[in-house]
Amino acid sequence: MDLEVNKQLVLDFWKAFSESRFDDALEMVADDGTWWVPGSGEGAGEYAKDEFAASIKGIGEYAPNGIRVTVSVLTAEGDRVAMEAECYGKLANGKVYNNFIHVLHMIRDGKLVKIREYMDTQHVREVFG
Amino acid sequence: MSAEENKKLVEHLYAAVATGDYGPMFGAFAESMVWTIIGSTPISGVYAGIKEIQSALAPKMMNSFEEVPRMIVDRLIADDDHVVVLAHGEGGRSKNGTECNNTYCHVLRLEDGKLVELIEYCDTDLIMKAGLGQAAS
Question: pLDDT tens digit string along B103-117?
Fold first, then answer.
C-alpha cells in the first residue's frame, strides 16, 4: 500500500473523529480492528471494534462539542503510520481536555486494523476523574 | 542519512539501552538535543541540551529506581528524518516499591547521524504512582 495513501486514511479518520462524524470514522476501521489505550486506569485496555465504537459514539455525553484532534507529524513505513497530535475539547464537567498523544495505526487493505494510543494518562485521570 | 540508515542506528542504540548501557545513546546526542517528556509529572518537561539532560533529567530518573527497567523495543518505524520507537519496560521497580514497567513511544528526529529531538510518550499515571522524580527532589 502506498505510504501517502495510508497517511491520508489516518488524516481522514481523525478529521471525521474531530467533526464527530463517528460513523464515517468507523467505516475506515476493519471489522476485526482493535484500539489499545495505555495505563491501568478506567478505560485502559484493548477493545474490539464494537466496544470502542460504543465509546466513541458516547463522546458527546462528556464533550458536547466533541474532541478536536490536530495532527502535527506523521511517520509512515510499510503498513504502519505513527501520528503525533494534540487533542482539545471542552468537557461537560467544566474541565478542558488538552492532551498530546501519539497513535500508532496499522493498516490492511485500506482499513485501520490496529490503533494504539500513547497519551498523558495522568491528565486523563485529572479531567475525567 | 536515509530513513533506513537512521533506523539501523536507532536499533543499535536501543539494543545497548536494553542491556543497561546508555553510553552509545548519550554519545549519539547532538549538542542541541532536546528531550521532551509529556505531561505534568515531576519528570515531565523539556530538557534542552546535553548538559541539561545529564544534570537534570538523568539523575531524576536514575535516583527514582530500585531496579532500573530494561527498555525492550517492540517496533521501529522510520520515515525521512524521523524514527518512532515503540517499547516497553521490564524488571523495573521504583524506590517506593512500585513495579514500574512503562509503555513507551519515543519519537526521534535525527540530523546527520545524531539525535536532535526525542519526544517521550508514556503512561504518566504510572510515573506518579511510582513516585518517579520525587526521590531526587
Answer: 999 999 999 999 999
Q: Tell me the β-bridge partners of A36.
A: A46, A116
| Whether the Cβ atoms of residue B60 and residue B42 lie closer than 8 Å to each other | yes
Selecting from A80, A118, A122 the residue whose C-beta is nearest the C-beta of B77 gives A80
Express each pLDDT in B19-58 by its tens digit. Answer: 999 999 999 999 999 999 999 999 999 999 999 999 999 9
- Out of B82, B124, B128, the one facing A73 most closely (by C-beta) is B82
Of B31, B117, B107, nearest in space to B76 by CA: B107
pTM greater than 0.80:
yes
Counts of helices then strands in chain B (DSSP H, E): 5, 8
CATH tag for A3-128 (out of 3.40.109.10, 3.90.550.10, 3.30.1330.60, 3.10.450.50) = 3.10.450.50
pLDDT attached to residue B62:
87
* In chain A, where the domains are located: 3-128
Interface test with B, best of A6, A37, A77, A97 (most B CBs within 10 A): A77
The reply to whether residue A125 touches residue B82, judged by beta carbons under 8 angstroms, is no
